[in-house]
Fold these 4 entries.
Entry 1:
Amino acid sequence: MANAWRTDHPWATVYDFLVESRRIGHPIARIGAGTDFGLLWEAAEVVGELPDGAAVLDVPCGGGVALRGMRPGQDIRYVATDISPAMLRRTEEAAHERGLARQVELVEADVAAMPFPDATFDLCVSFTGLHCFPDVRGAVREIARVVRPGGRLSGSAVLSDAGLRFLPMRVTGRIAGLLGPMCSSTELREWLAQDGFVDVALRPSGGITYFTATRA
């Protein structure tokens, strides 16, 4: 699975189109995954709310969808991290298109062993990422390690208990090597709590669940 994401998988192009196209992509997402990509746009706005001097980690950055929440000239450290050089190039291109090229730092890294000191970031965004990781528990633990006390986590993922309607989507993703073992909503709540997060909130949207939490 990790090897599938290291390459420029065709699904990455499809996903970027679906997310960015409100007129075409969003209706397709509603039909296929029962989800509202408008929630993803809203979730990305948390980046623009950061005060000057804050640091944000975007992992996995994918095609740079979270950049839509960033303001040109915003005085923050934005670190886009992904295991895939192809995804990092996509993020770099998106940063140029949005006039953010000078504000984005690209780091190739595995979420299970990120090259950042403890308590580095004020915010971690992880959109449609947890279900791509071969070790979800380890990824949550590592994200918690690099988020400072009082810092926030905002993300979305396909969870294993999303409902029978979305079982074919999960099975197909597993067979294609694009989805990992995933986790349930109960497991995600428990792991976040164990790793020091409080105020954990989950919001299902069809086959995708949005989540937020604060590092105690």
Entry 2:
Amino acid sequence: MIPQANMQSHKGYLGDLIGGSLMIRESQIIAELLLKKPSKKEWTDAIVNQNVLQKRSDASSKRNAATIKKRLEGLSDEFIEQLAFGSTELSTQLMFAATLINSTMLADFMRNIFIDAKRMFRENIDSTDWQSFWDERSRLFPEFAQMTTSSTYKVSQVAFKVLADAGYIETTRNKKLQNVYLLPEVRSLLTDMNRDDIIAAMEV
């Protein structure tokens, strides 16, 4: 199970959420690369020299690859293999699960704020939902209150982009709530990992 929020550092609780959205195409490429267990040299060669992510700059390639790698750290080869070679829907759900495992904060937002909005039959969520949640988390982690306005805005923007990529909201603009049905393959993998907390965050 995920450690309780007050047992984590603020960085561990936030995870690498600020690193970017789900990046499904890129995640499948990185997942396939990780299955080959590349050395540091082979990793750099693939990301920079071969530019497997097809980015315009080395910096973008390195940044995106590092974010995806962090989100997949500690996950089984079976999980990564299904992400690499699965359908778009399967890969999307698996990458969302990986992101929730990496960011306890986003998982908490899903289990609390998002699920409450669904239970109240709201049509959408909005930025004030995230702000209220952020303010509450800032009481647990005062470091969040010390972050710059631009940084906290970036976190919220990425969070909503992740939810849109995963299909839980229609767009980042209207934030209309959508129904997502957890695929049996995803449920099975998470059950095997004893991550019922992540299943609860995705079944909303």
Entry 3:
Amino acid sequence: MTHHTTTAIDPHRPWIRDERDDPSRMDWAQTLFNPLGMTGKLHFSRAWTFMFMGRLILFIVPVFVAFIAGLAGADMSGAWQPIKAIGLPLPALLVPFFFFTLVTELTSWVAHVRRFAEANRSTLKAAIVLIPLFLGLAGFALGVVAGSAQFDAQQAKQAAAVESAATGDTAGDAAATSPEAAGEEANEEARPEARGPRRNGPPPTQMEMALGAGMGFAFPLWAVSSFFVMLWTLLHVARMPNGGVGQFRTGSDLTREEQRLKSYETA
């Protein structure tokens, strides 16, 4: 059974000659959430474009607006403060981007499974789109371990400093009676900036430091791997012909007879 027609399905899109790519027949719910069906080239491209543009807009637009508002003198510090309700050190500005990305990781996998099924290819290849998610989770786990170790090291260093100060109290009291030692101590207290910048508020807890390090590891891994997966989707998956036959084209696939007919029409 062929899905090709000799006439354009949509008069506004004369290059579409496969009913599986008819825009009026696209079911967004099936395309994004049902991995058991099939999706034509055009419907897959539309779904993938929606997911990609959604991520792009939810990331670039808030950051750009906050940057411009900051240049204008507005106080945007609250936009970069993490929301404690979600348990992750995510800036309030990027919370919609984070949750939209999590959802579209799943819907992207579903759309790829349907596309491979339509092209008569192995649907196992669709797991490639989950690689960025897995790398991000692995990076998050490694970052959490590293952050916890860093917190423990800082705590041990502070404990050692307190113990050292306690054991040196006797000698320190004797030395502090001299005028020279008293003057040096007064000068040191008068110059707090010499000790380096201080963090506002209480020091970070072990969980805060661990989660912050985890996100710092996870995001670069996810972003870089997502870029290569995007290239694979655009250059391979989105160009696979419907039904596994035909040329690799951006429009609907045409049979050889239709291609010859089209060449005579345009001659």
Entry 4:
Amino acid sequence: MKHNKIDWNDVWKELYNENLHCRGSDECASIWESRERARDFLNRSLDNPERILNIITTLPVESGTRVLDIGAGPGTLAVPLAGVAAHVTAVEPADGMAEVMTEYAEKEGLTNLSVVRKRWEDLDPAVDLDGRFDVVVASYSLGMPDIRAAIEAMCKVSSRWVYLYWFAGTTTWEQAQIDLWPALHGTEYRQGPKADVLFNVLYSMGICPNVQTSRMAHTRTFPDLDTAVAEFRAQYRVETPAQERVLRDYLARTLTTNGGTLLHSGMTTRVKFWWEVNRCQ
């Protein structure tokens, strides 16, 4: 097959669906319906602010800027951005995430953040959004099967900038799944689409984005092995005692110790794509 005949959006869909089937999850947002899990996610992000600062300090956001944050989670970006921008609209479908984000904004005394509790794919800009935005951001929230349609919609609601953040290569958490899946489920783990596919989707749309790659540490800490097993049990679809033994043995071998704390750590490669919409239309 010739390169120019490849439908990269179809490649994205195929990899997305294979990964979804492998994980046995209906939606990426479904695991974040719990307020407890959402609050834990926010706390871990605040304990390791490198990623947040790396994004916020490089966005063209100032006092008069209107920002749209797609897949905003518990507000790790939306709330700090609201402290700088004129207004931030956060799109977040998971109830737990949206509730924690609202609490976070209230704690910070911010009133210029609004939350739209819908998936980006289900949102009607004419009904759910208030005009266009100077900056549209989707930070590690591209769990969308039709990525081309999602990006087209982002461009339509942006008056200037679109910023996308995604992963390149195997992430730390995926490596564990790759290692464990044959023993847990008798099959190979299928990774979702990465930044190479995303770039080709953009290029096929006539978008030639700026690209920046960075390496960042990803670390989870646990007080003991039982806590680590409990954390990963659902994520790795562990349902039987035999599967739990496999998981426990793997974590016992791979977690490192630091002052009595167990660490699950590694490096991830992250890619930022950004462009001005008026140069791509």
